[in-house]
Amino acid sequence: MLALTDLQSALGAASLGGDAITLAPAIIGDGFEPEQRLSIHRNNTTFLLCEVLATTYPVVKKLVGDDFFDSVARVYVRTQPPRSPCLFEYGGGFDAFLTTLPAVVKLPYLPDVAALEWAWNESFYAVDAEPLSAAALAKVDPEAYGDLIFTPHPSLRLVASAYPIKEIWDVNQCGADPDARVDLHEGAQHLAVLRANTSVTFIELSLGGFEMTARLSAGERLEDAFLSGQRLMTDFDPTATLSVLISAGAFHTFFI
Amino acid sequence: MDQLAPTAQSLASPIPSSPLPNRAGIGLKAQHYHDILNTRPNIGWLEVHSENYMCAGGPTLKWLTAMRERYPVSLHGVGMSLGSAGPLDQAHLKRLVNLDHRVEPGWVSEHLSWSIADGVYLNDLVALPYTPESLEVFSAHVREMQDALNRQVLIENPSSYLRYKHSVIPEPEFLLSVVQQSGCGVLLDVNNVYVSAMNHGFDPIAYLDQIPAHLIGEIHLAGHSQTNIEGRTIRIDDHGSPICDEVWALYEHLITRIGPKPTLIEWDSNIPSLDVLLGEAAQADAIMTRCGQGPQTEVSHACVD
Predict the structure, then answer these.
(1) Rounded to a whole number, what is the distance in Å from the CA of B283 to chain A's nearest CA?
(2) Distance (Å) from the alpha carbon of B176 to chain A's nearest alpha carbon
C-alpha cells in the first residue's frame, strides 16, 4: 500500500507529465487503463494552468498565436509549476523562460512584452496606498530637495526595452485598430508602470528619467539619483521627470 | 445517527457573522461585476473563490467590498489542500484568516481532496484514498484550519475520476467521520455526487440520503461535461454548462428531505451572461419553495441555523 505522501508525490509528478509506473498499480481501472484515468488529472493541471498564463499574458499569446502559445505554456507549466494556490502570482519568470527558447530568437521583443505584462499584473494586485501629492512636496525647503528620499508607490514597476513595447501592447488590446502597425525600429522605450488609482497606466520616461526613477525607487537621495540619470543623458531634465512622476502618483511618501 | 451529531466544539463555534439565507446564491465572476452592481439582482448571496481575493490590494478587492456591502458572501477555497500529507501552508492559512476578517463571510468552505504535492500546487482537486491514514491527516488539517479561523468550516464532497485499490472507507462514511473528528459541517455538492456516481457506478440517492440534514450548511449545483475515452464516457466537473436534469431531480429529492438550504449556482468555465445564472438561481428557489416546505423527515437544527 502506498503511503499518502508517496501517492501524492507520484500523482503530482504524473500530472506534470511524468510517468505513472509507481502509481498505476494503486488505481482501480474499472473499464479504463489506470493511465487513462490519470490523464484526466494531467489534462486538468496542464490545461487550467496554461489558461492562467494566457490570462496574464494575452498580448504575448496574440503575438505568437494560440498553438505556439499553448505549446510554450505547457513546457513552462511542467518545468515551473506554481508553488502557491494564489494563481494571480503565477507566471513571474515567463519572460526569462521565453529568452531560453530558440524559436523566440526571431521575436526579440517578445520577452520584453512578457515583462511588461507581468509588471502590469503585479501593479494591478499591489497594495493600495495614497499617492504623494505635489502640495505635500511644496512645503519642503528647496535647499533640502537634494536630500529628499522617496518611498515609491507600491504599484510602481519599471520596464525597459530596446523595442517600442508600449505601442506593441496598445495595438494588441481589444478594440485597437486592426490595421495599426508598429515600427520595431522606433527605438528603445523606458516605462514606468503604475496603478495609483483604479487602472494600470504606462508612463514613458527618458533614458535619464528611467535611471533616476530606478535609483529613487531603490531609496537613493534625489541628488544622487539625478546625477545617475545625468551620467546617461547629458540634456536630462530632472524637474520634468519628477513632475510627471508626482502627478501620476508614482510615490507614496518622502523623508529627508 | 447520534454519533454523527455535531461535536461540542462545533456547537461552541461562533455563529457566522453574516449567515447565508436559505435561498439560492451565485458564484461571483469578474465578468458580472458591473451587471450585479448596476442591476442589484434579487439573489440571496454570492460566493467567491477565496484565492482570487488574497491579493494585497487593487480593484478586485474593491469589487468584493462593494459586493459585500450589498450581499452576504461566502468564501470557497480551492487551495488549502487539506488532504495533503505534509503540513498546511501556513502563509496561505494566514492569508485566508485575513480575508475572513475583511469579508466576514457567512461560511468558509474547502474540499475533501488534495491539490499540493512536494510543494507544487496542481490547480486540481484530486480524490484521496479513503484510508485511516487519510482520515487522520484530513481531520487534523480541518481542525487546524478551524482553529486558525476560530470558526466552523464546511467541507465539500468531491467529483472524482479515479479510485484507489487501498481505499477502504466509502466516501460518505469518510466525510461523516471527518465531521465527527473535526466538528466541521458539510457542503453537499449535488453535481459532484452525480458525477462520481456515474463515473464509479454507485447510487447517488443513497449517497445523498446518508448525509444528515443538520450537518449540511450549504449546497452546490453546477453543470459538468462528458468526455469519451475509447467508447466509454467519463464525466468531468468543469462547471461550464447548465445544470442537467438528473442533478435538478436529485436536488429536489434532497430539498424534500432536508428543507431549504443556501444553494449555490456555480459556473467556472464558458461563463454565460448573468441572466443565465439568475435563471438557474430562480429555479433552485422555486424548488425550495415547492419541495422544501412540507414536513421534513429530519428536523433541521443546530450548527447551521
Answers:
(1) 30
(2) 20
- Cβ-Cβ pairs closer than 8 A, A with B, add up to 144
Q: What is the pLDDT of residues A106-143, one digit of tens each?
A: 999 999 999 999 999 999 999 999 999 989 888 899 89
pLDDT digits (tens, 9 = 90+) for A156-177: 999 999 999 999 999 999 888 8
Segment B274-285, tens digit of pLDDT: 999 999 999 999
What does the domain layout of chain A look like in residue ranges?
1-107, 128-256
B34 close contact with A: CB closer than 8 A: no
CATH classification of the domain holding B212? 3.20.20.150
Report ipTM (2 d.p.): 0.93
Split at pLDDT 50, 70, 90, the class of A193 is very high
Q: Can you give the residue range of the structural domain that contains B232?
A: 23-291
DSSP codes of every residue in chain B: -GGGSPPHHHHTSPPPSSPPPSSEEEE--GGGHHHHHHH----S-EEEEGGGG-SSSSHHHHHHHHHHHHS-EEEE-SS--TT-SS---HHHHHHHHHHHHHH--S-EEEESSEEEETTEEEEEEEPPP-SHHHHHHHHHHHHHHHHHHTS--EEEPPP-S--BTT--S-HHHHHHHHHHHH--EEEEEHHHHHHHHHHHT--HHHHHHTS-GGGEEEEEEE--EEEEETTEEEEE----SPPPHHHHHHHHHHHHHH----EEEE--SS---HHHHHHHHHHHHHHHHHHSSS--SS---TT--
The winner for highest mean pLDDT among B7-11, B224-228, B282-286 is B282-286
Chain A interface disruption, residue of B55, B162, B171, most A CBs within 10 A: B162
Instruction: Tell me whether B81 touches chain A (CB under 8 Å).
Output: yes
User: Could you give the number of structural domains in chain B?
Assistant: 1
The CA distance from B54 to the nearest CA of chain A, in Å, is 7
